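Appendix B. Raw example, untouched.
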Amino acid sequence: MKQPVNVSIDGSLQNESGKGKRPGTGSGSGSAVNRPKPPGRTKHLLTLVIILLLLWASAKQTDASFSELIEGFPNMLDLLKEMFPPRWTYFDNIVQGMLETIRMALIGTTIGAIIAIPVSIICAGNLMPSRWIYYPARFVLNLIRTVPDLLLAALFVAVFGLGPIPGILALAVFSVGLIAKLTYETLETIDQGPLEAMTAVGMNRIQLIVYGVVPQLAAQFTSYVLYAFEINVRAAAILGLVGAGGIGLYYEATLGFLEYDKTSVIILFTLVIVLIIDYVSTKLREKLL
């Protein structure tokens, strides 16, 4: 017959005879709790030395020094003095440019998201039958992410000429690389149970994707698209520097004519727009996930 066991306030176990036994204090050596030891002082010092050596080597290779930073500091102050106060009368001139920037980001993100759907499926190892398919696809995806969006815009300007079209194409290519990467990594972690059940009842691969993959991935995919849109709004603001349209054209014009008080208006306006989009996008992603 089992004896009733009581638990005392300090967490010890007691039987009817009143003899207690603290948890984790058994007689066997295997009852000891194995906790990871905190890193020692030597490890912290070694990490600090390695970081300092990397900083010193990087500064030497790039010819960067604190003396140059200190010498240039007065010039930075002069630039800030010329930027303030902002010339608020210039605000009306840049509203259309900012709206064009948002439209470029919206169209580029949408095109990139649509293309990213089949690309992410091809890159997913659990959906493709052979590694000879998804490994080359991932290599192409890595190649796309390697090229900066500003360089892509410059290349498209050389092909299509000045205007928003090169900017939209550059943002679309960048969005494909980002969204497809995040999506196929999520695809490889989805629950395989529904897919195996659908395969057992004879569904083909397209039906598996439509009825087994899409319901599990829809919220994450929408979150990735919103995240890409946030990044594209920031990126689209500077694509005009290479002639790809948007508010960047106004950056180039005001900086070229040394009208820094106008530039400060553009910077503040861009900051407000980016903060609003970040806030709205973050709230939407919180609701989705």
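End of appendix B.
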